[in-house]
Amino acid sequence: MNLKKQTFLSFAVALLLPLMTIFLNSCSKPLDEQLEGYLFVYFTGNGPGEEAIRYAVSTDGYNFRALNGNQPVLDSKKISTSGGVRDPHILRGADGKTFYMVATDLYVPEQGWNNFAMILMKSSDLVHWKTSVVNIPETYPAEFGAVDRVWAPQTIYDEAAGKYMIYFSMRSGDGTPDIIYYAYANNDFTGLEEAPKQLYFPPADSNTKACIDGDIIPFNGKFYLFHKAEDGDPGIKLAISDKLTEGYQLVSDKRVDCEKDRVEGSGIFKLNHSNDYILMYDVYTAGRYQFTKSSDLEHFEVIDHEVSMNFHPRHGTVMPVTGDELKRLMETYGSLDDLMVEATSPQLKKLNVVIDGAAKTIHLPVKRGTDLTALDPQFSCFKYFAVSPVGPQDFSKGPVGYTFSLEGKGEAVYQVSASEDHNPVLEGYYADPEILYSEKTGKYYIYPTSDGFWNWSGTSFKAFSSDNLVDWTDEGVILDLKKDVSWADRNAWAPCIVEKKIDGGYKYFYYFCAAQKIGVAVADNPTGPFTDSGKPLVDFKTLGVTRGQEIDPDVFTDPVSGKTYLYWGNGYMAGAELNPDMTSLNMKTLKQFNIDDTFREGTYVIFRNGTYYFMWSEDDTRSPNYRVRYATADSPMGKLTIPDENIVIQRDSVASIFATGHNSVIQVPGKDEWYLVYHRFTRPKGIEMGRAGGFHREVCIDKLNFGADGKIIEVKPTLKGIEPIK
Fold first, then answer.
1. Is-catalytic flag, 432?
2. Which terminus of the chain is more exposed, N or C, with fewer CB under 10 A?
3. 596 is catalytic
4. Strand pairing of 674-681 and 647-649?
5. Number of helices (H) and strands (E), helices first, in the chain?
6. DSSP tag of 542
7. The pLDDT of residue 26
8. Of the residues 213, 215, 257, 432, which is catalytic?
9. What values do phi and psi take at 722, rounded to 5?
10. Cβ atoms of residues 32 and 276 within 8 Å
11. Do residues 649 and 715 lie in contact, with contact meaning Cβ atoms separated by under 8 Å?
12. What Cα–Cα distance (Å) separates residue 353 from each residue in 248, 370, 459, 640?
C-alpha cells in the first residue's frame, strides 16, 4: 500500500470511528433509557361486550387515556372458548422485544363464576397476537379433573430456569378454597410443560380461605407476591420469598392496600426513571380503581388525586413501553375521532367541555365575564397529537376551525364553539343543594353535599355565597364530621338551614345527615362556625316504617303561623314541628305523609298564595331518570293532594342533561319570582359513568314558574341557566 492510500485510510478511520461509536452506543442504549410511556391492559365489566381486552396509554403513569375509543383490541369470541376474556396481564419478555399476555377465559353472563381455561398470547409488536387456550381439567384430568375455577393468570420470567412461569388460582369444587398454582410455559408459549404445582402455602392460622389474583415482582433480590386473601379482613396481602417458586412467607395478616371496601386484582409496576412503584387494584364493590405509591413495597400511600382515566377499568395491568412502542400503539389505535386532548384554560368550566368526535365539534363553556373575542382554549395534546392554531382566537362570531393531527393518521378539522353557560353554578362536584336568603347579610347561600366521593363517602360540608344567584364564592368548610361531630364521622349528606331572629340577633340552625341519621348544628352567621348539638336529632323510624333511611331533612317556617317544621325520609316522608329551641322535635306532632310510590327522598316545602307545595325526588340519584314531583296541601302538616301531571323537572335527553333532582327553591325577597336549585349528573361524562354518575353531580339553577291556576309549570333544565338577579 502506498503512502497516500495509507494516509487516506487512516484519515477515514479517524473520521468514521466516532460516528460508528455514536451509532453503536445508540443501538445498545439500555432499555430503561428508552422507556417513554405505559400501556394499561384491562377489561371493563361483567356484561356482554365488556369481558374483552382493551388498551390505554400514559406518558407519566398517572394519567391514562383509552385507545381505540375504549373498544376491544382483540375479539374475545375468536381467542377464547367462552366468548369472554378477563383479568389480562402483560409482560415484556427477557429479550426486551417479545411480549406475553395471559388472561382468564370466562364469560360471566353464561358461566357465572365457574370456568376451566386460560388464554396464552404472544406478540412481537403489541398489535398482532398468536393465541392459544389451556383447559386445565381437560389437559390434566387425573390431577385437576374437578377444577371449576381457573382465574387471573400472570407470567414472570424465571432467570434461573430460563423459562416463563405462569401462575394463577384454581378451585376444585364448592367448599374448597382457591389456591395459587404455577407451571412453566412450553417453548412457543402455547401450553404448559407439566401439571401445575402449588405456589403459595398460607400459614395455618391465617389466609386459610381463598387466595387469588397473585402478582409477583422481583425487588431487592427477593420475590414479592401480592395477592388477594379472603380470610380475616379480605384484601391485598403480601408474601415474600428468596425463590420464585417456593418459600413465600406472609409478611402480615394486615392488608397492604389502603381501602376499607373489598378489593382485588392488584397490579404493580415501576415508574420509569424512578425508584417508586405504583400498586393499583380494583375496588370492585364500589366500581372504581385505586392507585397507591411506595418505594419499599410494604408501605403505600393513596395517590388517587393525582390519577386520571377517561375509562373505567376492571382488573388489569400496566407495562412500561418505549417511545417506538408508544408511537406504534398510537398509529394503530389512536383516532382523530377520539381526540386525546384537553382544554386547560382557567377561563373554562373544564368538567363541562364537550368533545364530539363523530360531529367533529368541541364546545367550551366559559366562566362569566370571559372575553370571547380573545379566548385561548390552551389545548393540551397527548404525544403524537398536534393542534393549530394556537393562542387567543375570536369566538364571539361563531365556531373557530381547529386542525388536529395525529402522526400516521393525518388530520381533521373540528369546529370549536364557546359560550357563557351559567349552569352548573358551582365549580366541581356538589349535590343536594339547599338555598337560603339571609336577612342579616342580604346575600344568598347554597349549602350542598360535597360530591365526587365514591359511594357518597364525603365527610364535610361547605357553603357558597352570592349577591345575584350567578356568581358564587366558596366560603370553605363549615362543618367537618371528623373534627366537629362526636356521634358520626361518615356520609355527610343533604343539609338544610333556617335563619331565625332570636332576642334581636340572628341564629342559623343547620340540619344535616351523618351516618344515615340527622343532626343539628348552630351558628351566629350563615357561614359559621357551626357547633353540633352533640347528638342526632332523628335516629329512629316513624310510625311502623321498616324501610328506607333517616336522611334528607328539610326545614320550613310557616309564614302564616310562624311555626317551624322538619321533614325527612328516604322511602317514606315524615314530618314534625320543631320545638322553640329548634334542636328538638315536638313528638306529639310526628306524622307520616300520604305519599305515592313515586316518592324516594328529598322533600322540600314552599308556600305561595295560600298553598303549600311539597316537592320530592323520584327514582334513584344514580338513575338518569331521577326527577322532581310535587303535591299541594292547605297546611304544613295537611293531607297532600297529588296532581295527575306533577313533574317539576326531569331529564332532557336532547340536551344531554340527566338525573335532575333533589331540589330546593328560592324566592326573591318581596317578589313573586322563584328559582329552582337542583343537581344533575356532571355533563357530559356523567351519563357514561354508569352508577358512578350518581356521586359525580353538579348544582344548577333555573327559573320556576307557576300557571294562573297555581300549578307548577314543568321546568326545562338548561345549560345557559339564569341571568344575574338584582
1. yes
2. C
3. no
4. unpaired
5. 8, 48
6. -
7. 45
8. 432
9. -110, 165
10. no
11. yes
12. 50, 15, 28, 42
Q: What is the predicted pLDDT for the residue at 233?
A: 85
Order of strands across the sheet with 611-618? 601-608, 611-618, 627-633, 647-649
Q: What is the pLDDT of residues 296-353, one digit of tens each?
A: 999 999 999 899 999 999 999 999 999 999 999 999 999 999 999 999 999 999 999 9
Task: Give me the pLDDT at residue 230, please.
Answer: 87
CB-CB contact of 322 with 375 (8 Å): no
- Nearest residue to 123 (alpha-carbon basis) of 114, 112, 115, 131: 131
Residue 27: its H or E element: helix 3-27
Q: Which entry of 213, 264, 451, 601 is annotated as an active-site residue?
A: 601
Count the neighbouring beta carbons within 10 Å of the beta carbon of residue 401: 12
Here the cell at position 75 is 375479539
Residue 683 identity (one-letter amino acid): R
Top pLDDT among 268 and 253 is at: 268
Query: What is the CA 625 to chain-centroid distance, rounded?
Result: 20
DSSP label at residue 338 = B
- H/E/C letters for each residue in 403-451? EEEECCCEEEEEEEEEEECCCCCCCCCEEEEEEEECCCCCCEEEEEEEC
Domains observed in the chain: 31-333 (2.115.10.20), 341-420 (2.60.40.2340), 430-713 (2.115.10.20)
Determine whether 84 is exposed, middle or buried from the number of CB atoms within 10 Å of its CB (0-12, 13-18, 19+): buried
- Residue 422: which region, alpha, beta or left (left: phi > 0; alpha: psi -120 to 50)? alpha
Query: What's the pLDDT at 173?
Result: 86
Q: How far apart are CA 680 and CA 352, in angstroms?
A: 12
Cell of 16: 468514521
The three grid cell numbers given for residue 653, joined into one nine-digit string: 335527553
